Give the backbone structure.
Amino acid sequence: MTDPTSDGHVHIPVLAQEVERLLGGRRDQDSLCGLLVDATLGAGGHSALLLERFPRLRLLGVDQDPEILSIARERLEPFQGRVRTEHARMSELDGLLAEVDEPVVGVLMDLGASSLQLDRPERGFSFSWDGPLDMRMDPRRERDAATIVNQWDEGDLADLFFHEGGERGARKVARAIVEARRRVPFKRTRALSELVAISLGRPIRSQDPSQRPQRPGKAAIHPATRVFQALRRAVNEEAEELEAGLEAARAHLAPGGRLLAISFHSGEDGVVKRFLASGARGGDWDLVTRRPVEASPDEVRANPRSRSAKLRVGERLSQHGDRA
């Protein structure tokens, strides 16, 4: 299912068929009744599909990005009366759900940055195009990427790039940043991405992705990819937000309700895996997926973003460890 946005961009929700199948489980269309919480609503593609598939389902759609939230609201207009949207972070989910008076039958999380954010240079997420060094999903946040790059000390930057981005040359990059910012503070994404590439010995000659040489059969990876990922995760406190969202799901899902988490980062997938495994040992969860569900080759060809997607699902048990 494609999701045309107001600016003509087409957003394709990943693992859409798998999400539909695993949320419903053994239930038919009419028997899945209650509230679905889309904790990362994005452009609303997953939610629109699920609202169409399950006519008795209602939706609470939450997103911290007001620009993308406006796109989702337009996308979900055909389901008026069944949809409530909120500009909020996952760390605010517990408070929102405390006011809900109907059973929560599903919590969906599609983690990481949206292609709608990555494809807008003015948002500062892209290492391929020039824009302000921002990366805030929620404009209410005070700290942006420029603040981290220009103010954190060398050791903290190196730790960030290594632990949150998996960048093996983290110390080289951190050292180069600190030396360069003594002369001129970083304000733009292009200046940072070029410095990262040079510090790793992999300068990029063209900023146009279509002009970069690629080895046959293998997509080129920009040398600044991991550093930009680490900065984005730090700016938006993605690790802390995920932990809070998972705890809210545990607290508010009705027995038999399901948590579905799609991750694109090995660290996030590990957090979800450990959370569900620990909860299964404690009688909170039944592991619906013992291994993560991944995109089929056909989906990867149609939507390259799905290549690294991993879906894990847990079913909330009652206090006695039994299904509803």
